[in-house]
């Protein structure tokens, strides 16, 4: 009998030990699960804050509305815009529409401060020098009429000035026949430029880096 009691005691002790071990494993698992959950939340919060920080200081995104920059950019394509770029002639920039509230325009810089800009016989002249515009070739090749793709103009004809004023830029849309641009809205202040379009990231099959 004493032997059986010892056996029973050992069995009970073993069962209690296994139960304690199981409970301990569950507590460890719950603690680990909670730690992982907190870690995931922390990572998500940091990622959101980092995104806002980067967007505020370094880049933003925008969506193309309309066809004024076709064929370079089409309606509803999405762009990454660098806020740190030093913009120059022929860069594609984003800026608030001066004549429409809560709207952004996307155009190409044609004239920088001091430039004399004119178009004659469908040829762009900057400071008296003819410039090729390869970004217009696709549309020009598709024309079925003999009308110019870009009507003749000069800055003096449009605004009564010979050159782009200091601190401003002259912009045009690539779709010259259907673009509301510098010919209508005037010069764009450097201070109003949001940034330079650097990457077309959507749609994915048309991913492109602009340089």
TrEMBL record:
NCBIfam families: sigpep_I_bact
Active site per database record: 68, 107
Family per record: Belongs to the peptidase S26 family.
UniProt GO cellular component terms: plasma membrane
Organism: Isobaculum melis
Entry-linked InterPro entries: LexA/Signal_pep-like_sf, Pept_S26A_signal_pept_1, Pept_S26A_signal_pept_1_CS, Pept_S26A_signal_pept_1_Lys-AS, Pept_S26A_signal_pept_1_Ser-AS, Peptidase_S26
EC numbers for this chain: 3.4.21.89
Keywords for this protein: Hydrolase, Membrane, Protease, Transmembrane, Transmembrane helix
GO biological process, one term: signal peptide processing
Highest rank taxon of the organism: Bacteria
Protein's name in the database: Signal peptidase I
Parts of the chain that traverse the membrane: 37-59
